[in-house]
Amino acid sequence: MKFSTISSASTALLLLPQLVSAHYLFPHFILNDKVSKPQEFTREHDNGFMPLKTPEILTSDDIRCNKGSMNHRTQPKTAKIKAGQDTVGFKTAVGNVFHPGPITIMMSKAPGSIAEYDGSGSWFKVFEMGTKLPWNGKDDGWLTKDKDRFTFKLTDKIPAGEYLMRIEHMAVHQPFKQKELYIMCAHVEVESSYTGPEPGPTIKLPGGYKADDKAFGLDSWANPPPKEAFAPGPALWPGGGGGGDASANDTQPAAPPAQAGKQSQPAKGKPETKGKPDTKAKPDTKAKSDSIKEKSKKVKRILRA
Q1: Most confident stretch, 153-167, 168-182, 262-276
Q2: DSSP per residue over 276-297, as a string?
Q3: Where is the composition biased (Basic and acidic residues) (predicted)?
Q4: Lowest mean pLDDT among 28-42, 176-190, 281-295
């Protein structure tokens, strides 16, 4: 599915699933505040706006870069980035990250051409964003919610080479252990003079996430509200120890943005909204309806442009 041009009512219909269900994609790669065209550097997939769901996805190769992404592996360009200098990240297609939950960005080095790499190697984490500290246990305490982009300064402690850079948002809005994962990968080539220890700890996908990991056990509707949240995957690199594989059971609390070097703040998101009630009552349908109307207006403005 291409999103580079919005020029007809039929294209607008492609956006309706997102407007109705608050689903989203991350087709734009960001390099030093410049937002790319859709899928210019990101690997398209065949899953549209739909999320991947646990626990089934945890044992599937689709957890790497989403369903059918290998069908599009030769299409993206490769973004050249300088370790320790450039700010990189991802932006949504339309609207913002509507659901609460952590954002993580991991990287995996290709043994050869990135255009043929399936992501079966080791993955290490370079960025995560979670909740405010202290956290009130509610949706409005997530730093990720209602933002449309997530950027960070790439550490200088990454060897030169071609990598898949994978963004993942784990939506935790449902009051049970099944979680929704929104995943996309970019093709990047890192320019670096780093010759130190290999980045780590690392995980493999699938295999690195387990159904009983703390990250997947969060009940956002619990009463009393939860006091801490966890991001999937290994600890951040650098600062997460040396190389070698690590189980996702070693997940760290989902904290405010943490990465060596200067952080660039997520921008242009909507104001934070109130979280879900502390009880297991249904969420505020009026607030959701207002959000959908707002996004519908945005699509109409795009079509008129």
Answers
A1: 153-167
A2: --SSSSPP-HHHHHHHHHHHHH
A3: 269-294
A4: 281-295
Reading the block at residue 12, the tokens are 């607008």
% residues pLDDT > 70 (the chain): 70
Give dist(CA 45, CA 39) in Å, integer.
Answer: 10
Contact at 8 Å (CB) between 83 and 155? yes
Residues 6+ apart with CB under 8 A from 8: none
Would you say 198 and 159 are in contact if contact means Cβ atoms under 8 Å apart? Answer: yes
The whole-angstrom separation of Cα 98 and Cα 121 is 31
Domains of the chain, each with CATH number or no CATH: 23-298 (2.70.50.70)
Contact 130, 144 (CB under 8 A): yes
Q: Residue 169 to residues 12, 92, 99, 134, 180: CA-CA distances in angstroms?
A: 24, 11, 9, 21, 8
Q: Strands, E, within the chain: which ranges?
A: 28-31, 34-35, 42-43, 52-53, 79-82, 87-91, 103-109, 122-129, 149-153, 161-171, 180-191, 203-204
- The reply to whether the predicted model has a pTM over 0.85 is no
Report which residue type is found at 293.
K
DSSP summary character for residue 228? -
Residue carrying the six token digits 């659901």: 99
Residue 251: per-residue pLDDT: 38
